[in-house]
Design goal:
Helix 2 (98-110) packs across helix 7 (275-286). This protein has helices at 3-28, 98-110, 122-129, 157-163, 194-197, 217-220, 275-286, and strands at residues 34-41, 44-63, 71-75, 117-120, 136-140, 145-146, 167-170, 178-181, 184-187, 211-212, 243-249, 254-261, 264-269, 294-312, 316-321, 328-333. Strands 4-3-5-7-13-12-11-10 form an eight-stranded mixed β-sheet, with helices on both faces. Strands 1, 2, 14, 15 and 16 form a five-stranded antiparallel β-sheet that branches. A three-stranded mixed β-sheet has the order 6-8-9, with no helix packed on it. The protein has two domains: 36-65 and 295-335, Immunoglobulin-like (Sandwich); 67-292, 3-Layer(aba) Sandwich (Rossmann fold), CATH 3.40.50. The protein is 22% helix and 33% strand. The relative contact order is 0.22. The protein contains seven helices and 16 strands. By secondary structure, the chain is an alpha/beta fold. Strand 12 and strand 13 (264-269) form a beta hairpin.
């Protein structure tokens, strides 16, 4: 055997086995292995955490945050063209295409106590957006929306749906630039992003950035994606915008951006497809963050079996176990 030739192959196989085994452990861990609870007294929240094994944990108290969504719909329809860039993957890894991203997103949300998730096609998405959007989250990873809900004009159903309270989580391309009519994609131009953001301020410069936004969300949520491609330039948003950038920044854009629209909002995760992007998108959805949300306080700790503590009260507390390798998360309303 030629060890010089075969060593990289052996290493790649070992890494692949470790990654697959790690994912299997995470995705097969049930809610019975982890639980969190909170109670309120005298302006403080007491929290209790039960976990199998030893883990780090983060407790984030927030104000002006959101209740858990009543419904989460992930749009995916093979009959409607997507407009996303192909991304490279590790040797032996499955291609990170839209179908795989959607499948993984369901499991990633389930780890964060979001189980009311369904995958919807064009017809089901149109039905969702024909209703009031309050308390409903839609995840779009296709880089385009079907013509039945978006046609590049201000009268598009998706805009009315968001304004009624809908939460649109977006990744994969410039928001609003494309809509699809079956297997044809229509380019509305970069300026169409103004329909969702109030002005055309999306920057298509690809950038991996390393500075951290100063609002504490990055550490509290163990955010990992540091790509700001397709993110709006925050200072170019209208002065009356309800906007929040969290995660990483290049000084102008954030890796995750929330922009209010009527009673709802859009959440844009920067960059092309990546597992880090998927994890961050699920994390901010599950944590109940919106464009007006602010951190009250954060507690970082470790648990081996059981842990408890106190944190100043806001309106919600999100507890995540596992840090950068999350095994469970849960949002609690503070009463």
């Amino acid at each position: 055997m030629n060890a010089r030739i075969n060593a990289p192959l052996v290493i790649a196989v070992i890494l692949l086995v470790v990654i697959v085994a790690g994912e299997a452990i995470v995705f097969t861990s049930g809610h019975q292995d982890y639980s969190t609870d909170v109670s309120m007294r005298d302006g403080e929240v007491s929290y209790d955490i039960t976990a199998r094994g030893s883990h780090v944990y983060d407790v984030i108290s927030m104000k002006d945050s959101l209740d858990r969504p009543q419904e989460v719909a992930i749009y995916y329809d093979e009959d409607y063209i997507s407009v996303v860039n192909s991304v490279s993957v590790a040797v032996g890894g499955r291609a990170l295409d839209e179908k795989y991203y959607v499948e993984q997103m369901v499991d990633t949300l389930m780890l964060r106590d979001i189980s009311n998730v369904r995958i919807v096609d064009e017809n089901a998405l149109r039905i969702v957006m024909d209703r009031d959007g309050d308390g409903v989250a839609v995840v779009c990873l296709s880089g385009s929306l079907p013509k039945s809900v978006y046609n590049g004009t201000a009268d598009s159903p998706v805009l009315k749906w968001i304004s009624s309270g809908g939460r649109l989580y977006w990744a994969g391309n410039v928001i609003g630039q494309y809509y699809s009519d079956g297997q044809t994609a229509v380019d509305c131009g970069l300026s169409a992003s103004a329909l969702f953001l109030g002005t055309a301020c999306v920057d298509t410069t690809d950038a991996k950035v390393h500075d951290v936004m100063a609002n504490r969300f990055r550490d509290a949520l163990s955010m990992q994606n540091n790509d700001t491609l397709y993110s709006p330039v925050l200072l170019q948003l209208p002065t009356d915008s309800r906007a929040l950038g969290i995660g990483y920044t290049d000084g102008q854009r954030a890796s995750v951006t929330f922009v209010g629209l009527g009673d709802g909002f859009v959440c844009i995760a920067g960059g092309d497809y990546s597992n880090f992007q998927r994890i961050d998108l699920a994390q901010v959805l599950a944590a109940g963050i919106g464009p007006d949300t602010a951190v009250v306080d954060v507690v970082h700790g470790s648990v081996s079996g059981h842990a408890s503590g106190k944190i100043p009260a806001g309106d919600h507390v999100y507890i995540c176990i596992g840090g950068f390798f999350p095994v469970y998360g849960e949002l609690h309303e503070v009463e």
